[in-house]
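Quick board copy: two proteins, each given as sequence then tokens.
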Amino acid sequence: MALAREKRGSSVLSHLQQVTAERLGPLVELFVLDRMYDRTLPALAAMPRSAAVNLLYDVVTGAQDPGGLYFGDSSVKLGAALTIRDPRQEDPVSWVQFCRRAQEAAEFAGLPKALTQGMIGALRELETNIHEHSGQARDGVVAFRGTPAEFEFVIADSGIGVLAGLRSAPRYASLSDAGTALQTALTNGQSRLLDDDPGRGYGFNELFVNLANLNGELRFRSDDHALTIDGSGPTLPQARLAQKARLQGFVISVVCSLGAPGRLH
């Protein structure tokens, strides 16, 4: 669908009625792809929509409060918000509430409290990255989904992308491949801000540390590449790169779950 959008201009979102996507990651990625061409997302205006699609549509288009919208029943807990806060100021109530609800969704998925706190810490760190690196911070999207089987969160923006972000620093000026840029950005100690602050470059470390004892599925998407990692205790050496249709910005999708009942996988 993404390639069809790139080559023929047909709306990706208009195909959602033929696609069953329970997870938020694919939906957010489709939203970002369509938003590259038309920020009003007209393809969704008159079509039947699931709770997750409704939630994302209302947040992304500003139809309802962009500071946070939520849905929950006995089987799923959903939330989505735009990254409209100012990280230089004290966290607004809406952002504090969003993080609290995301933690509740992680606990609903069965993750122990200490792990849920770590995962929400990673979510907060990655949301801050949008403000520091994207160049277009206020329309980033943060979303979460909790079920009795797994917890998922997604961070996405429509900014300059990982390759352009790294190339803005002289030490990475020779980078020319988006896949290499993704691998570099995820490596400890690598950051376009290293020249100003040698302690930078560990923004993804908290994420990998907290997934060490979980089944995890991670997808990082920017420009014309996607990097995926999955399995028990996912780590960067497990990563697989693939070329994709171009996407403006950066999308991070994280899904995690417990292993056998009574213990971590």
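And the next:
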Amino acid sequence: MNSNQQCLEANRQTELKSVLERLYNKYNHRSLIKPDPLQFLYRYSSPADMEIAALLSAQLAYGRVEQIQKSLSTLLALMGKSPCDFVLNFSELEQKKLALFKHRFTTGNDIADLLTILKNVLKKHGSLESFFLLGYNDTDDNIIPALSAFCDSLTAIYKKHHNDRLSHGLRYLLTNPSDGSACKRLNLFLRWMIRADDVDPGLWKSLDKAKLIVPIDVHMARLCKILGLYDHKTVSIKTAVQITNAFAEIEPADPVKYDFALSRVGIVENCTGQPRPECEICELLEFCK
């Protein structure tokens, strides 16, 4: 890259950061969280309850927004006032309460299997944070090795009691980045747990937000493509890393900072990537042309 190209790229990054900051200031407010599944964390004041609600909310964050909200409302109502207590006391009685639950292709049995694993984790380690830290190394470039270890350890608990086999439902819930998946839902969970601002609660204090990976769903993939932040044809963990590295050039200490605000453009503003009248007032218009 010659000096002129470097100058153009620097100017573009400056302009993009300015746009992203405007989006952040516009959307990154607690009052604007709905209809994001993150809203369900703030039903609780106890970090232990919020941690469990966060993992379940992230795991069911697929499909139509209305269905996600309905399913999470139903599931958390079944779990009573304290999701953490529900997990710690999980037994056949609690499993029966989940029998009729279903969110798309996640069944009540899948949730029961996950909660059984989480009961084991909480009994032994006290919190999901303590358990996650077992696989975390501050010298790693990003959170991916720790997330892989987290998934491996959770699935190992299940396999130990199921002839070394993993159910299809749990395999989906505990999708591992080592398999190439972008792991949108688990990276979303980690964003909620590690970042702290008016939107993200930042319950986990021992991990560096600079190591987070951007959660990539269809909306983020489309917008990041428009912004020229990746060149992969398919969305994988490599795509997520490329996108994250692009954001890290703009905000190295907090590359996931703009995730919530950008997702509002796709979800709330219904951006499809195609020209329409609303585009004229969109902050990203200059990058779409």
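Board note added afterward: Residues 35-208 form one domain.
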